[in-house]
Design a protein that fits this description.
By secondary structure, this protein is of the alpha+beta class. About 15% of the residues lie in helices and about 35% in strands. This is DUF4249 family protein.
């Protein structure tokens, strides 16, 4: 009886071993039909503040990489947009340009990058680009002068990505995990403080 029990246990173990290595069930999710997106991972933040006492020499400078299944090649364009905001007495926030209907974000275009601005690099398989502009470029785009800027003001820099399929990705429609997690590092929105 003991020999029969041992043989049964060995046979059961062998059956479990063989079947555990085989996938008999087709996945429920249609992996080949996933609609994969694209995002801009921030790989470097060289300069993300403006010096109030030296606005002509202050700049915004980050490096991003386009992450998608094709190594970044579904990217068509990235609009770099900006608006100015100031906290005023009473806790209100004043924006230039002012908020649009239903408090929608109004901002102005500083520059547009295209796929040709994104280049291969030695650190990853994704294409990278630097996004740079001076404080004076931001002021000019907004119609402001240097004397209208105070310490404590902020500039909101928004990226609006369009892919070759016509889809648009920005800080409004990107998921929280894409915007806030360290790995993805793709906020699409950068706050540039004036110090």
């Amino acid at each position: 009886m003991k020999i029969l029990k041992n043989k049964f246990v060995k046979l059961l173990t062998l059956v479990l071993l063989v079947t555990s290595c085989t996938d008999f069930v087709d996945p429920i999710l249609p992996y080949k039909d996933f609609d994969l997106a694209i995002y801009l991972r921030t790989t470097a933040r060289t300069s993300t503040s403006f010096d109030h006492l030296n606005l002509p020499n202050s700049n915004f400078d980050i490096t991003v990489e386009a992450v998608d299944p094709e190594g970044g090649r579904t990217l068509e364009s990235v609009e770099v947009r900006v608006r100015h905001r100031r906290l005023v007495d009473g806790g209100a926030v004043v924006y230039i340009p002012a908020a649009g209907q239903n408090n929608l974000v109004n901002d102005v275009l500083i520059k547009t990058l295209t796929l040709t601005d994104f280049q291969p690099n030695n650190e990853s398989r994704f294409l990278r680009a630097k996004i740079q502009f001076t404080a004076l470029e931001a002021l000019t785009a907004l119609g402001l002068s240097e004397d209208q800027i105070n310490v404590g003001d902020n500039f909101e820099v928004r990226l609006k990505l369009r892919d070759k399929f016509g889809r648009v990705f920005n800080d409004i429609n990107a998921g929280a995990s894409i915007k806030n997690e360290v790995f993805y590092a793709s906020p699409f929105l950068y706050v540039v403080s004036v110090n």
